[in-house]
Design goal:
Layout (H helix, E strand, L loop, with lengths): L5 E5 L1 H10 L6 H10 L4 E5 L9 H10 L4 E5 L3 H10 L3 E4 L19 H13 L3 E6 L3 H10 L3 E5 L1 H5 L2 H20 L3 E5 L7 H5 L4 E6 L1 H10 L1 H14 L2
Parallel strand pairs: 1-2, 1-8, 2-3, 3-4, 4-5, 5-6, 6-7, 7-8
This protein binds pyridoxine-5'-phosphate.
The site of pyridoxine-5'-phosphate has 18 residues, from strand 8 and helix 10.
Length: 242
Amino acid sequence: MTGRLRLGVNIDHVATIRNARGGEHPDPLRAAQAAERAGADGITAHLREDRRHITDADIDRLMRGIALPLNLEMAATDEMLAIALAHRPHAACIVPEKREERTTEGGLDAAGQFAALVPIVDQLGAAGIRVSLFIEPTELQVDAALRLGVPVIEFHTGRFALVGGEDRVVELRRIADAAALAAKNGIEAHAGHGLTFDNVVPVAAIPQIAELNIGHFLIGEAIFTGLEASVARMRSLMDSAR
Ligand code: PXP
């Protein structure tokens, strides 16, 4: 697949800053609306078990206040399943979640947790929610996603973003190979985590990848340039890669 690569802007860390003081500022909904004006194609938000950034009320306001599709990142738990089924976002991305981690540190073990994922994937899909799995770019995990019957896979680019030199080339190849395997089997490939202005282009150039989800860097950069400028620059770097 080639053509326009979609940008999903993750607004979690607008909520992180708001929560540092309580109250309502800065407002993640306002950030989502600014991202939309700057060329985002979707908004992503992760409702964590500990509600450390996005809250239930944020999900409610985002569902009602944005025109763009909402991609709800969620752990594979009964609580999150009930919330997703109540709100029916456009998409739900199932992510691994450990309370003590700082961020989503690795992909979901779709192969190891296969049996537990089946009912969650099935119920989300039956509700018309586009399900994706946030996995490492390996054949084992892509194969599990295929067997689970999800329409979308999101590849974790965290390792690619961390390493340099020859290791980065190897990581990029793993992502490209896994995206090609997904696309060959009719699954849409997305990618995200740790992407920045400096590393986004080679990932954006992988022709089978249809969407990138980017958050922390864009919100951090917005401190210096404003959110619309930060999103617009990412959008233009992504477009330059195609
Ligand atoms: N995609 C998924 C599934 C995520 O969980 C996250 C956040 O951890 C991202 C993309 C965005 O990562 P980052 O904030 O590093 O851009």
